[in-house]
Amino acid sequence: MHHIYNTEAIVLMAGAAGEADRAVWLLTQELGLLVARATSAREEKSKMRYGLQDFSVANVSLVKGRAYWRLTGTILAEQFYTKLKDTDTLQTVAVVFDLIRRFIPIEEQDSVLYGVIRSGLLAFTKSEINKHSTELLLVARILHALGYMPENLKYNELMSSDVYDVDITADIKAEIVKDTNNAIANTDL
């Protein structure tokens, strides 16, 4: 008998797999990043399809098979696709999610990183937020949590915070941009 794992997950991306299945990239709170197969999730009668939409947060049930993870159930917790105000914001979040898929190792649990990404996703839904600053802080915090960003006394306090509506001075912003670009370039991913 296989163990069923129940955890909260952010759906980073989902795509067709076979006739009616979906392959879903999930960032889970307890299992880390993983790709799971949802059998018959593309069929109209499927109850799982609502919890597997891109940019959603769902409570998922997973079973580890020999070759891949299998989704056995989903309950939609929050749908961010409709809360993200415009196509620019959707594209920005999609770029951040692509970065997550590139940098986070598969099946490596990190609840701190999950919290950073979850709070960043929530920050994008606020109407008064600066999208560019939010994207910069989210990417820098992800890279910092993964250990790619250097320690910098100018902005270390910003990296450990989960607040996104902060005023960043031009020199600190330039420093974060420089260190973020260097971190991405140095990873060779």
Notes on the structure:
This protein is 35% helix and 26% strand. It starts with a strand and ends with a helix. The protein folds into 2 domains: 4-79, Nucleic acid-binding proteins (OB fold (Dihydrolipoamide Acetyltransferase, E2P), Beta Barrel); 87-187, no CATH class. The chain has helices at residues 87-103, 111-123, 131-145, 156-159, 170-187; strands at 4-17, 21-28, 32-38, 56-64, 69-79. The longest helix has 18 residues, at 170-187. A hairpin with a 3-residue loop joins strand 2 (21-28) and strand 3 (32-38). The chain has 189 residues and is α+β, with helices and mostly antiparallel strands.
Task: Please write the string of helix (H) and strand (E) elements.
Answer: EEEEEHHHHH
Structural class: alpha+beta
Contiguous uncertain segments of 5+ residues: none
**Global mean pLDDT:** 85
